[in-house]
Structures are given as structure tokens and as C-alpha cells.
């Protein structure tokens, strides 16, 4: 039995899948579940975003997708569809990557998940090396507390997690700061005051749980 499991995070640039193209066109942020590949070659996609109208228009014009459905609840738009276009994450999955979440923003992506054992990690890295624009960002042993998704682990709401993730992606926490609160709020499709409230509540939750 292999006792070691590793958390890994990949950065992806230059992907031409429908979600990457839609976020590149709109500048939106999209959170996706790992795609499920059918025997006929179609992938079942489920993803959500706060910027639903623009993303819906971009995806609706993409002839690689079929049966696009969108629902709007709690300030977010949830999409479901079939995609004939292969995604980079399929290549990593075939090599042993256990995808947990996919996050797309302005054409770039971040894949998080796990691999079981160093040998599988080497195979996944070889697959990443053969794919365009895929780089390993992080890898470390998974503890028991890491088995839950970050929002669930720390008690964050989806809106708080999205605010923190988008702020991080846009360099809001960088020194010097690469974006201001208004920029992040615009990317999330909410008011500046709503963004700052989500950010403060999310940070307070994280600090309370960790410190």
C-alpha cells in the first residue's frame, strides 16, 4: 500500500479549451469541477461564475459546446454543458492526477488536486511537460486536514472564497499591489463595498481558524 499522497497545483497558460477562451474574451473568473469524459468523446462540464451574462454569451457562440444550460442562484451563475473539445486536465488525469478544482481567469487556469506516490507524480509531470503552457506551481504531502476543499475546511462561504481567490489572482495582496479593491470588485461583478465586506469576513474566518 502507498501511504504518501501529494497535493499538487498546476498553472496553465495558452489553453484553447472553451472555458479558457470564454474567460480570455470576457476577463471573467470561472470555477469548474473536474470534467467527466464520456465514451463518445464528449466531456460533461459543470462550472460557475459571478459574471454570467458575458460568459453565457461567449459560450453560447462556441460551436464546440452542446446543450448549454445556465441557472442563477445566490448571485452566481451555474452552467452545465457537453464539450467535444479536449481539455489539458484530461492529459494530466490520464497520467494519474486526481483533480479537485479548476479555476479559470482571463484565459489562464489553475488546477488543484492530488497524486498518489512519487512515481505517479513523475508521470503526471511528464504529461504536463508535453502539454502547452503547463507548469507545476506547488507540491507537498497531504495531511488529513487537506482532504476537504479549502472553503469547506475553513468555513468560508462561496462568495468569500471567490473574493479571496480573485484578489490573490489579481495581485491585490502583492507588494506593491497590482490591483485595487475597485478592480477586484469589477472582476467579480459586485460593488466595491460588497467585495470589501466579503474580503474582510473571509480573512477574519481564515485568521480565526489558523491563528
Overview in brief:
It contains 8 helices and 9 strands. The chain is an alpha+beta fold. The protein starts with a strand and ends with a helix.
The helix-strand sequence is EHEEEHEEHEEHEHHHH
Report the end-to-end length measured between terminal Cα atoms: 35 Å
Enumerate the spans where pLDDT stays under 50 for 5 or more consecutive residues.
144-148
The total number of structural domains is 2
Write the layout of secondary structure elements.
Layout lengths: L4 E8 L5 H9 L2 E4 L3 E2 L5 E7 L2 H9 L4 E9 L2 E8 L4 H8 L2 E8 L2 E9 L1 H13 L3 E8 L8 H5 L3 H12 L11 H8 L3 H19 L1
Antiparallel strand pairs: 1-8, 1-9, 2-4, 2-7, 3-4, 4-6, 5-6, 7-8
Structural summary, described in words:
- This protein folds into two domains: 5-145, no CATH class; 150-210, Arc Repressor Mutant, subunit A (Orthogonal Bundle), CATH 1.10.10.
- The protein contains eight helices and nine strands.
- The protein has helices spanning 18-26, 52-60, 88-95, 118-130, 150-154, 158-169, 181-188, 192-210; strands at residues 5-12, 29-32, 36-37, 43-49, 65-73, 76-83, 98-105, 108-116, 134-141.
- Strand 5 and strand 6 (76-83) form a beta hairpin.
- 33% of the residues are buried.
Which keywords apply here?
about 210 residues; alpha+beta; Arc Repressor Mutant, subunit A; 9-stranded antiparallel sheet; about 30% strand; globular
